[in-house]
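An instance noted here:
***
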Amino acid sequence: MNIFQIILTVIAALCDVFLLIFDICLLISWLRAKEKAFITNWTGFIYVLLGFSIFMTSHSHLYGWLFLVMVLLMIPSQFTCISPEGVRLPIFIKGGIDPVENYSYEYTKNGFGHEVLLLCNKNGKSGLPYSIGIKKPKAVKMLADWYGKHNYENPLTK
């Protein structure tokens, strides 16, 4: 192994350790929620597929395998867990929950005409678009409860 491969191996190993701790903390937070729904966006999975394709070019080296583990450990972070209490975070960030009072949301259409959910922070930042899992009854019910708390009318419950 040359010095470049050693550096890549060390970086990939450190990233794997960090992502493993992050995923464990995220899963603990998810398990603490009695009711939960998961939403995500297809663009996150494009990054995972891109990472997997990079692995395919370097699988003969140790850092290539460590990179594959890193890509697989990134999969849980592609999902957002919503609960009646708020958005679930890893337990080392804000105690594992960002309260529902910090969020508002709206359903809209993206540039391709697909319906998306925008989950917005109350500080006025633009919302993160979600397209997968937004019409599941459990997610709609939780979001309808949030609309009631924020004095909005949920178009899906009309």
Notes: The radius of gyration is 19 Å. The longest strand covers residues 103-109.
